[in-house]
Each structure stands twice: as structure tokens, then as C-alpha cells.
Amino acid sequence: MLSRFVAPIRYYLRLTTFLVGLAANAMFGAIMALPMSLVGKGKDNQWLVARSFVNTVAPLVGVKFRVEGREHLDKANPAVLVGNHQTMVDILYMGAVFPKGTSVMAKRELQWTPILGQWMTLSKAVFVNRAKREDAVKVFAKVAAKMKKNSLSLWIFAEGTRSASPTPSLLPFKKGAFHLAVQAGLPVVPIVCENYAHVYHAKAKRFNDGEIVVRVLEPIPTGGYTSSSADIARLTELTRDRMLEAIEDLGRKRQEQLRLAGGQGHGEGEREALLAGQAGRASTSGETASARIEAPSE
After folding, report:
1. Which of 14, 87, 274, 291 satisfies CB 3.0 to 4.6 Å to 61 for a cystine?
2. Residue 213 phi/psi, 5° resolution?
3. Which residues pair with 190 in a beta bridge?
């Protein structure tokens, strides 16, 4: 009976901690943007904030990360980093793997978000107008040249929006990240965060302690691809297939772990997550306040 009240209270307390931590770290990044630029370290500002955020906030909300394949980030630098997008908690997993010399691509509306938008502007995040394809194409051309000139990597959520799925899955990919990778002549590095409904799920008001596994996959060279629609479609499909295979593999391992934990009478949240997984892939659900970092439309 008591657990019915404990779980929602924990959820809102941790959600508040997460959002306050996000605002505080964004403010820290905005303050550091100018001095870092003056000493030639401006392109590492987002890395600094990402690391600061995960190191300060993750322990407060009971989340730990285990990263597999981190060495692949060293093989391909700079690169276009393609991550899967589940919920706002993705910002934490970004912090666990975010390399130096990396920026994010975000929808233009995010530029006007209080504190977060100001920091992202000062740290030279790439904003795109998803409603105007021609504007996005112009941005890609400029960003591709800048990436090559300054040895800069770019992080993009290729799904374009959050899936909020309680089971391992991916939404269809937008093609913007792959157009950019081909234009810049840089590899695509797929980064997969396991489905973490056992830790966080907004609809279920769940924010539990737990470990989340992030897997960095082998870089995908783009040298053999052109900007033709057919080539971009092939590259998009290849990347998505590899990421889906990885997220399903991580999901199977987590299901087995949760099954054993449930059999030993562990937490109610874990058992709920297990039941959700056994029910198969569910349709996406809505989620409250967050900072979306999204890919542009094709």
C-alpha cells in the first residue's frame, strides 16, 4: 500500500532534481563559454557541461552508466554521432559518452528555452529550422565545412523526436544526419542507449535506482556514398539496422536480468518494467517537461 505513494513521490523529487541540475549546469556552461573561447577551448564547452551534468546529477537520481565500446570514439574523430532518443533522461547518457570537440544539432525552437537555450547559443550548438528544408540544407553545407576545418564532431538524434517506448525499439530515422556525414566526408558512429524503462518511465511515474548500459558501435565509413537519395537511404538503413540489433540485444540481456530480479522479490518498478517488456513493443506515450534535442527533417 505504502509503495503506491513512495514511487510517485520519488519520481517527482528526482524529476525536480534532474531539471534543477540541468538548469544549473547550463548556467555553468554559459558562464564558462567566454573564458574557454578566449583560451582556445571553446569547442569543448559542451563536453564540459555534459560531463559536469552526468557527474553531479546522475548520483543524485540514483542512475549509473556502463559504457561499452568507448574505444570506437577514438577511432573516428571527428564524426557524426547518431544516438537513439527515448526521453529527456537521454541528456544523462549523452554525458556518459560525449567526446571532446563535439557539438549538438537542435531544433531552432530550443534556442529560446530559458537558460538552456542561452547556453547552447553561447556554446555554438547548431540550430536548424525543421519546417524549412532549404534552410536545413544550407545549414548542413556550412556545418560540414566547419566540421572539417575545426575537427568538430556533431551529435544528432536521428529519430527526430523521443520514442518514450517502454520496450527496446527505434522510430524511423530522419536522413539529415546522413546527408551531413556524406557532405563532410566523415564516418557515422552509432551510439545506442538501452531501453531504460526499468529506471525511468514518465507515464508510470517511475524513477528508480539502476544501471543503464550505453553501447558505442563500430564507425561506419561514408567514403563510398554519394549525396544521391539512394545512397543516403542505404546509409540510413544500415545505421538504423545496426542500432536496432544492438538495442534489441541489450534489451534481451536486461529482460533476463529483470526476470531474475523479479523472481527474487526485488522492486515493484523492476517487475512493472518486466511486464511491459513481455507485452511486446508498445506505442509511444507522451511525456512532461523536457529539453528536446532533435534532428531536422529530411
Report:
1. 14
2. -95, 130
3. 82
C-alpha cell read off for 147: 566540421
What phi and psi values does residue 67 have, to the nearest 5 degrees?
-105, 125
- The answer, yes or no, to whether residue 173 has pLDDT greater than 70, is yes
Taking the CA atoms of the chain, what radius of gyration do you get in angstroms? 19
pLDDT digits (tens, 9 = 90+) for 79-111: 999 999 999 999 999 999 999 999 888 777 777
Burial 81-108 (b: 16+ CB within 10 A, else e): bbbbbbbbbbbbbbbbbbbebbbbbbbb
User: Nearest-CA neighbor of 286 among 188, 162, 160?
Assistant: 162
> Helix, strand, coil % (nearest 5) of the chain?
50, 15, 35
Give mean pLDDT, residues 49-67. Answer: 97
pTM comes to 0.83
Give the C-alpha separation, 276 to 283, whole Å.
Answer: 12
What type of residue is 142?
Answer: K
Q: Which domains does the chain have, with CATH numbers?
A: 3-278 (3.40.1130)
Residues 6 or more apart whose CB falls under 8 angstroms from that of 276 comprise 166, 167, 197, 201, 282
Task: Tell me if 218 sits within 8 A of 252, measured CB to CB.
Answer: no
Residue 235 has pLDDT above 90, yes or no: yes
Contacts of 124 (CB under 8 A, 6+ apart): 42, 43, 45, 103
